[in-house]
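Entry for the shared binder. Reason: the reviewer on the internal report wants the predicted structure included alongside the sequence.
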Amino acid sequence: MTAISGWGRYPIIETELISPRTADALRRAVAQGDQAIARGNGRAYGDAAIGVRQTIALVHLDRMRAFDAATGQVTVEAGVLLSDLIAAFLPRGFFPYVVPGTSLVTVGGAIAADVHGKNHHCEGGFGRYVEALLLALPTGEVVRASPDRHPELFRATVGGMGLTGTILEATIRLRPVETGWIRRSTVVVDNLAAAIAALDGSDGATYSVAWIDCLAKGASLGRSLIFLGEHASSDQLDDRQRANRFPLRKPPLSVPVDAPSFVLNHWTVAAFNELYFRAGRRKAGSSMLVPVHPYFFPLDALGGWNRIYGRRGFVQHQCVLPAGTAHATLAQMLDGIARRGGASCLAVLKKLGEGSGALSFPMPGYTLALDFPIGRDLFSFLDELDELVVGAGGRLYLAKDARQSRATFEAGYPDLAGFRDVRRTIDPTAKIKSRLAARLGL
C-alpha cells in the first residue's frame, strides 16, 4: 500500500498504486480493477484521483501519436502533460485552446475535469476541443467515443472525473498562433461591483482573469486587478522579442521544505495583498507583452509551491455562482473571509460560460477560487461558505474538492440522473470508484 494525496496534501490516503507501462497493460489493469481510479500527475487538489482500493497511474503513457498541421489535431496518450504538448507544438505555431492555471496536468486529467481557463466566457472548456478519445471500460472493452459516436458516453466522460472508464488516448484540436507572447493589459477596480462590471465589459477579450484582494473590507471589499490578454501577432513584437518568437519555459525554482505555520497568517497575507495591489495600480491602463508561461502558469515557476502551506496542507474552495446571485453572494463570502482572516493571497475571480459535459463544473456566472491552509475551525467555516453557494444556486469544483458533503454536491449538480445511468450501464458492479465518488455517492 502507498500513502498518497492530491496537490493540497489533504487528505492523505493509503491505496494500492498500479503503474502500467503500455496501453494494453493499462486496459488489463482497468478490467481487473477493484474500486480503482486513474491518476495523472496528481494535480487534482483533493481525493478525486485516489481509488478506494486501487489507483492506476498513467505517468508512463506519455507518447504523442500523430499530428496534422493542416487541422491542428494532435493525438496523444492520456499521460502526456500539457507542458510537454506546449514544448513540442508552440515552436510550430500551435497552442492548446484551453489551459488551466498549471501546465503540469495530463491531457487525460484535463478531459476528466473538463478544465477551464481564462477564456471560458467566450471559448468554453477543454472538452469543447476534444475530437475523439479511446476509453478503456471496466469490461476490458476499448471504445472510441466522440461527440458523434457514443455521444452520451463522451459527454459523461468530459468532466466525469474518470468515473466512466480510463482514457487511453485522445485527439484534441490546437489553436494556431503566430508567437508565444501574450499582449496583457491591467485594469484596476476598487470594489467587487466594479470587478464584476469590468469582467462583463471585457467579454470581447479572449482572456480575462481577476486577482481579488480577499482581505479588503468596507468600501474596498473585492478590490481587484483584472488582467486581459490576447495572443500577440508577429508584427507586435520588438526586435528582441522577434528574435525569441516562441520563448521556452524557464526551469522552476523549488520550495525545499514545508513552510512553518506562521508564514501564512492574516498579517502576512494582508501585507502581500496591499503591495501586490499597489504594484498593479501602477500598471493601470498599460499594455505589455509577456511570454505565455508566466501569463497562464505563474505558479509553475515555483516547484512544490504547495509546501508553502505547511505540512498539514491546504484545501481550495472554488465555487461558481449564477450571474443573478453572484454579486450578493460573493460579497457575503468575501466579508466572512475578511473577518476570519488567514485566507490565501492566491484569490482568483473569473467569468464562465456553459460547461461541455454532464458533470462539468462551469455554468454561466462567476467563479471564485481561494486557498486555505488546514487549521482550526476551517472546515466549519467552509461549510458556511457552502451554504451560501448552495443557497445562491451555485456549486463546487470537483477537481479542487476534498471535503464537501454529499448534500452540497447533489444540490449543486441536480442533473445527475443521466450521468448515473451511464455509470450503471458501463460499470454495474462499481469497479471504478475514487474516494471522491465514494464520499459523494457517485
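Summary line for the report: The radius of gyration is 21 Å.
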